[in-house]
DNA sequence: AAAAGCCCCTGGATGC
DNA sequence: TGCATCCAGGGGCTTT
Protein backbone atom coordinates (compact mmCIF):
# COMPACT_ATOMS: atom_id res chain seq x y z
CA UNK A 1 0.00 0.00 0.00
CA UNK A 2 1.93 2.86 1.33
CA UNK A 3 4.28 4.85 -0.82
CA UNK A 4 5.93 8.10 0.23
CA UNK A 5 2.72 10.17 0.33
CA UNK A 6 0.87 7.61 2.47
CA UNK A 7 3.80 7.23 4.86
CA UNK A 8 4.16 10.99 5.16
CA UNK A 9 0.40 11.41 5.70
CA UNK A 10 0.66 8.80 8.43
CA UNK A 11 3.60 10.59 10.03
CA UNK A 12 1.86 13.95 9.98
CA UNK A 13 -1.28 12.43 11.50
CA UNK A 14 0.38 11.41 14.76
CA UNK A 15 3.85 12.96 15.11
CA UNK A 16 2.82 16.01 17.10
CA UNK A 17 0.33 14.07 19.20
CA UNK A 18 2.85 11.44 20.30
CA UNK A 19 5.70 13.89 20.92
CA UNK A 20 6.51 14.11 24.62
CA UNK A 21 4.74 10.84 25.45
CA UNK A 22 6.31 8.35 27.85
CA UNK A 23 6.36 4.71 26.79
CA UNK A 24 4.41 2.66 29.32
CA UNK A 25 4.36 -0.73 27.66
CA UNK A 26 4.97 -2.57 24.41
CA UNK A 27 2.78 -5.32 22.98
CA UNK A 28 4.19 -7.63 20.35
CA UNK A 29 1.95 -9.92 18.29
CA UNK A 30 2.76 -12.22 15.40
CA UNK A 31 6.17 -11.70 13.83
CA UNK A 32 6.30 -9.23 10.98
CA UNK A 33 8.99 -9.19 8.32
CA UNK A 34 11.53 -9.72 11.06
CA UNK A 35 10.90 -10.69 14.66
CA UNK A 36 10.83 -7.71 17.03
CA UNK A 37 14.29 -7.40 18.53
CA UNK A 38 16.07 -8.63 15.42
CA UNK A 39 19.76 -7.89 15.63
CA UNK A 40 19.80 -7.78 19.42
CA UNK A 41 21.41 -10.45 21.56
CA UNK A 42 18.46 -10.45 23.94
CA UNK A 43 15.87 -10.11 21.15
CA UNK A 44 12.36 -8.84 21.92
CA UNK A 45 12.66 -8.61 25.69
CA UNK A 46 15.74 -6.42 25.48
CA UNK A 47 13.95 -4.07 23.09
CA UNK A 48 10.86 -3.87 25.28
CA UNK A 49 12.95 -3.16 28.36
CA UNK A 50 14.98 -0.55 26.53
CA UNK A 51 11.86 1.28 25.36
CA UNK A 52 9.90 1.19 28.59
CA UNK A 53 10.02 4.60 30.24
CA UNK A 54 11.54 6.27 27.17
CA UNK A 55 10.11 9.62 26.07
CA UNK A 56 9.18 10.20 22.43
CA UNK A 57 11.08 13.12 20.91
CA UNK A 58 9.56 13.07 17.44
CA UNK A 59 8.83 11.11 14.30
CA UNK A 60 10.91 11.34 11.14
CA UNK A 61 10.52 9.70 7.74
CA UNK A 62 13.24 8.34 5.48
CA UNK A 63 11.86 6.92 2.23
CA UNK A 64 9.02 4.67 3.33
CA UNK A 65 10.46 4.14 6.82
CA UNK A 66 9.15 5.92 9.89
CA UNK A 67 11.73 6.65 12.57
CA UNK A 68 10.48 7.29 16.07
CA UNK A 69 13.15 8.95 18.20
CA UNK A 70 13.00 8.45 21.93
CA UNK A 71 15.22 9.24 24.89
CA UNK A 72 15.67 7.17 28.02
CA UNK A 73 18.03 8.40 30.72
CA UNK A 74 19.32 10.92 28.16
CA UNK A 75 20.26 8.09 25.80
CA UNK A 76 18.65 7.67 22.36
CA UNK A 77 16.48 4.70 21.45
CA UNK A 78 15.06 4.33 17.97
CA UNK A 79 11.97 2.57 16.74
CA UNK A 80 11.78 2.02 13.00
CA UNK A 81 8.46 1.14 11.38
CA UNK A 82 7.81 0.10 7.79
CA UNK A 83 4.23 -0.44 6.63
CA UNK A 84 5.01 -2.95 3.89
CA UNK A 85 2.10 -3.58 1.54
CA UNK A 86 -0.82 -3.69 3.93
CA UNK A 87 0.26 -1.92 7.08
CA UNK A 88 -1.40 1.06 8.73
CA UNK A 89 -0.95 2.82 12.04
CA UNK A 90 -3.51 4.21 14.43
CA UNK A 91 -2.74 6.55 17.31
CA UNK A 92 -5.39 7.36 19.85
CA UNK A 93 -5.83 7.70 23.60
CA UNK A 94 -8.51 5.06 23.29
CA UNK A 95 -8.63 2.24 20.74
CA UNK A 96 -11.00 -0.73 20.52
CA UNK A 97 -9.74 -4.18 21.54
CA UNK A 98 -6.92 -5.46 19.35
CA UNK A 99 -7.95 -7.51 16.29
CA UNK A 100 -6.30 -10.46 14.62
CA UNK A 101 -4.09 -8.30 12.40
CA UNK A 102 -2.89 -5.92 15.09
CA UNK A 103 0.68 -7.05 15.58
CA UNK A 104 2.41 -4.27 17.46
CA UNK A 105 1.44 -1.66 20.02
CA UNK A 106 3.31 1.07 21.79
CA UNK A 107 1.35 2.12 24.85
CA UNK A 108 2.21 5.64 25.89
CA UNK A 109 1.06 8.28 28.33
CA UNK A 110 -0.64 10.10 25.44
CA UNK A 111 -2.20 7.19 23.62
CA UNK A 112 -1.63 3.87 21.93
CA UNK A 113 0.27 3.56 18.65
CA UNK A 114 -0.95 0.41 16.97
CA UNK A 115 0.18 -1.31 13.78
CA UNK A 116 -2.36 -3.28 11.79
CA UNK A 117 -0.81 -5.36 9.02
CA UNK A 118 -2.78 -8.29 7.55
CA UNK A 119 -0.02 -9.49 5.22
CA UNK A 120 2.78 -8.88 7.73
CA UNK A 121 5.22 -7.58 5.14
CA UNK A 122 5.79 -4.61 7.42
CA UNK A 123 8.51 -4.30 10.01
CA UNK A 124 9.11 -2.88 13.48
CA UNK A 125 12.76 -2.66 14.40
CA UNK A 126 14.33 -1.44 17.62
CA UNK A 127 17.82 0.02 17.63
CA UNK A 128 19.95 2.18 19.87
CA UNK A 129 21.11 4.22 16.93
CA UNK A 130 20.74 4.58 13.18
CA UNK A 131 24.29 3.30 12.92
CA UNK A 132 23.45 -0.09 14.44
CA UNK A 133 23.78 -2.88 11.93
CA UNK A 134 20.09 -3.40 11.15
CA UNK A 135 19.11 0.22 10.57
CA UNK A 136 22.26 0.72 8.54
CA UNK A 137 21.51 -2.26 6.37
CA UNK A 138 18.04 -0.93 5.61
CA UNK A 139 18.71 2.79 5.34
CA UNK A 140 22.22 3.11 3.96
CA UNK A 141 21.41 2.28 0.35
CA UNK A 142 18.43 4.59 0.01
CA UNK A 143 18.33 7.27 -2.67
CA UNK A 144 17.55 10.96 -2.23
CA UNK A 145 14.32 12.36 -0.83
CA UNK A 146 12.23 13.53 -3.80
CA UNK A 147 10.43 16.37 -2.01
CA UNK A 148 13.59 18.08 -0.80
CA UNK A 149 16.28 20.13 -2.51
CA UNK A 150 18.48 17.04 -2.46
CA UNK A 151 16.58 15.86 -5.50
CA UNK A 152 18.08 17.67 -8.49
CA UNK A 153 17.64 16.83 -12.14
CA UNK A 154 21.31 16.91 -13.16
CA UNK A 155 22.47 14.21 -10.72
CA UNK A 156 19.23 12.32 -11.43
CA UNK A 157 20.16 12.25 -15.11
CA UNK A 158 23.72 11.16 -14.32
CA UNK A 159 22.46 8.30 -12.14
CA UNK A 160 19.93 7.11 -14.73
CA UNK A 161 22.65 7.12 -17.39
CA UNK A 162 24.28 4.19 -15.60
CA UNK A 163 21.20 1.98 -15.60
CA UNK A 164 20.08 -0.24 -18.44
CA UNK A 165 16.91 -1.52 -16.71
CA UNK A 166 13.48 -0.14 -17.68
CA UNK A 167 12.88 3.31 -16.17
CA UNK A 168 9.79 2.09 -14.26
CA UNK A 169 11.85 -0.50 -12.40
CA UNK A 170 14.70 1.90 -11.73
CA UNK A 171 12.23 4.34 -10.14
CA UNK A 172 10.81 1.54 -8.00
CA UNK A 173 14.21 0.30 -6.86
CA UNK A 174 14.59 3.32 -4.56
CA UNK A 175 18.38 3.51 -4.67
CA UNK A 176 18.40 6.67 -6.80
CA UNK A 177 15.27 8.36 -5.49
CA UNK A 178 13.12 7.00 -2.63
CA UNK A 179 9.42 6.77 -2.01
CA UNK A 180 8.13 6.15 -5.53
CA UNK A 181 6.09 2.94 -5.44
CA UNK A 182 3.96 1.12 -7.95
CA UNK A 183 1.18 3.68 -8.24
CA UNK A 184 3.28 6.82 -8.44
CA UNK A 185 5.88 5.32 -10.77
CA UNK A 186 3.19 4.76 -13.38
CA UNK A 187 1.63 8.15 -12.70
CA UNK A 188 4.91 10.08 -12.90
CA UNK A 189 5.87 8.39 -16.17
CA UNK A 190 2.49 9.31 -17.62
CA UNK A 191 2.92 12.96 -16.63
CA UNK A 192 6.38 12.96 -18.17
CA UNK A 193 5.17 11.24 -21.35
CA UNK A 194 7.72 8.46 -20.97
CA UNK A 195 7.15 4.81 -21.86
CA UNK A 196 7.80 2.68 -18.72
CA UNK A 197 9.73 0.04 -20.65
CA UNK A 198 12.36 2.48 -21.91
CA UNK A 199 15.88 1.80 -20.66
CA UNK A 200 16.71 4.44 -18.03
CA UNK A 201 20.04 5.14 -19.70
CA UNK A 202 18.36 6.06 -22.98
CA UNK A 203 16.47 9.04 -21.60
CA UNK A 204 17.67 12.38 -22.90
CA UNK A 205 18.47 15.12 -20.45
CA UNK A 206 15.32 17.14 -21.24
CA UNK A 207 13.16 14.05 -20.74
CA UNK A 208 14.84 13.32 -17.39
CA UNK A 209 14.19 16.92 -16.37
CA UNK A 210 10.54 16.40 -17.20
CA UNK A 211 10.49 13.16 -15.19
CA UNK A 212 12.18 14.88 -12.27
CA UNK A 213 9.43 17.48 -12.25
CA UNK A 214 6.72 14.82 -12.70
CA UNK A 215 7.92 12.78 -9.72
CA UNK A 216 7.81 15.84 -7.49
CA UNK A 217 4.44 16.94 -8.83
CA UNK A 218 2.75 13.56 -8.44
CA UNK A 219 4.06 12.89 -4.93
CA UNK A 220 3.14 16.37 -3.73
CA UNK A 221 -0.34 16.16 -5.26
CA UNK A 222 -0.92 12.78 -3.63
CA UNK A 223 0.32 14.12 -0.31
CA UNK A 224 -2.08 17.05 -0.59
CA UNK A 225 -4.96 14.62 -1.17
CA UNK A 226 -4.13 12.53 1.87
CA UNK A 227 -2.56 9.73 -0.19
CA UNK A 228 -4.28 6.96 -2.14
CA UNK A 229 -6.71 4.58 -0.47
CA UNK A 230 -7.16 1.58 -2.76
CA UNK A 231 -8.19 -0.98 -0.19
CA UNK A 232 -7.43 -0.13 3.35
CA UNK A 233 -4.95 2.69 3.72
CA UNK A 234 -5.76 5.18 6.40
CA UNK A 235 -3.82 7.71 8.43
CA UNK A 236 -3.24 7.36 12.16
CA UNK A 237 -6.53 9.15 12.72
CA UNK A 238 -8.31 6.59 10.54
CA UNK A 239 -8.90 8.86 7.54
CA UNK A 240 -8.52 7.62 3.98
CA UNK A 241 -6.94 9.48 1.06
CA UNK A 242 -8.43 10.63 -2.22
CA UNK A 243 -5.64 10.66 -4.77
CA UNK A 244 -6.75 7.35 -6.33
CA UNK A 245 -9.69 9.27 -7.81
CA UNK A 246 -7.27 11.38 -9.80
CA UNK A 247 -5.03 8.62 -11.11
CA UNK A 248 -4.44 9.01 -14.84
CA UNK A 249 -3.31 5.46 -15.52
CA UNK A 250 -2.94 3.33 -12.39
CA UNK A 251 -5.73 0.75 -12.13
CA UNK A 252 -7.34 2.04 -15.36
CA UNK A 253 -6.61 -0.78 -17.82
CA UNK A 254 -8.80 -0.51 -20.95
CA UNK A 255 -10.33 2.74 -19.73
CA UNK A 256 -9.86 5.79 -21.97
CA UNK A 257 -6.79 7.94 -21.47
CA UNK A 258 -7.84 11.24 -19.93
CA UNK A 259 -5.67 13.07 -22.45
CA UNK A 260 -6.24 11.23 -25.74
CA UNK A 261 -9.00 8.65 -25.07
CA UNK A 262 -6.87 5.70 -26.21
CA UNK A 263 -7.32 2.64 -23.95
CA UNK A 264 -4.83 2.45 -21.08
CA UNK A 265 -2.55 -0.57 -21.27
CA UNK A 266 -1.37 -2.83 -18.48
CA UNK A 267 1.86 -4.82 -18.64
CA UNK A 268 3.99 -6.78 -16.16
CA UNK A 269 7.42 -5.58 -15.16
CA UNK A 270 9.29 -7.54 -12.49
CA UNK A 271 6.12 -9.21 -11.15
CA UNK A 272 4.39 -5.83 -10.72
CA UNK A 273 1.77 -4.32 -12.95
CA UNK A 274 2.50 -1.15 -14.88
CA UNK A 275 -0.11 1.09 -16.50
CA UNK A 276 0.52 3.51 -19.35
CA UNK A 277 -0.94 5.17 -22.43
CA UNK A 278 0.71 3.93 -25.61
CA UNK A 279 -0.20 7.15 -27.43
CA UNK A 280 0.86 9.73 -24.85
CA UNK A 281 3.97 7.88 -23.65
CA UNK A 282 6.82 7.21 -26.05
C1' DA B 1 27.81 -3.71 -10.12
C1' DA B 2 23.50 -4.36 -11.80
C1' DA B 3 19.56 -7.05 -13.26
C1' DA B 4 16.16 -10.58 -12.80
C1' DG B 5 13.48 -13.90 -10.01
C1' DC B 6 11.80 -15.59 -5.75
C1' DC B 7 9.59 -15.20 -1.72
C1' DC B 8 7.44 -13.63 2.65
C1' DC B 9 1.64 -13.52 3.99
C1' DT B 10 -3.51 -12.83 4.10
C1' DG B 11 -7.74 -11.65 1.97
C1' DG B 12 -10.75 -10.03 -1.66
C1' DA B 13 -12.45 -10.57 -6.37
C1' DT B 14 -13.40 -13.52 -10.12
C1' DG B 15 -14.55 -17.69 -12.50
C1' DC B 16 -16.13 -22.45 -12.84
C1' DT C 1 -22.27 -22.26 -1.92
C1' DG C 2 -17.71 -24.16 -2.54
C1' DC C 3 -13.27 -24.28 -4.38
C1' DA C 4 -9.35 -22.85 -7.29
C1' DT C 5 -6.93 -19.14 -9.20
C1' DC C 6 -5.16 -14.64 -9.54
C1' DC C 7 -4.06 -10.28 -7.77
C1' DA C 8 -2.56 -6.62 -4.32
C1' DG C 9 0.34 -0.10 -2.40
C1' DG C 10 7.18 -3.54 -0.76
C1' DG C 11 11.59 -4.97 -0.70
C1' DG C 12 15.33 -8.08 1.00
C1' DC C 13 17.80 -12.01 -0.59
C1' DT C 14 19.79 -15.17 -3.91
C1' DT C 15 21.11 -16.22 -8.34
C1' DT C 16 22.64 -14.86 -12.94
Q: How would you describe the oligomerization state of the chains in this entry?
A: single chain
- CATH architecture descriptor name of the largest domain: Alpha-Beta Barrel
Overall SS class: alpha+beta
Count of distinct structural domains: 2
Tell how many strands the DSSP assignment holds: 10
CATH class of the largest domain: Alpha Beta
Largest sheet: 4 strands, antiparallel
Helix content: 25-40%
Strand order across the largest sheet: 1-6-7-5
Number of helices: 7
CATH superfamily annotation of the largest domain? MutM-like, N-terminal
Query: What is the N-to-C order of secondary-structure elements (H for helix, E for strand)?
Result: HEHEEEEEEEHHHHHEE
Poorly predicted tracts of residues:
none
- How far the N terminus sits from the C terminus, by CA atoms, comes to 28 Å
Report on the structure:
The chain is α+β, with helices and mostly antiparallel strands. Helices cover 28% and strands 22% of the residues. It contains 7 helices and 10 strands. The strands form 3 sheets. Strands 1-6-7-5 form a 4-stranded antiparallel sheet, covered by helices on one side. Strands 2-3-4-8 form a 4-stranded antiparallel sheet, with helices on both faces. A two-stranded antiparallel ribbon has the order 9-10. β6 and β7 form a beta hairpin. α1 crosses α7, α5 packs across α6 and α6 packs across α7. The longest helix has 20 residues. 40% of the residues are buried. It binds a DNA duplex (16 and 16 nucleotides) through α5 and α6.
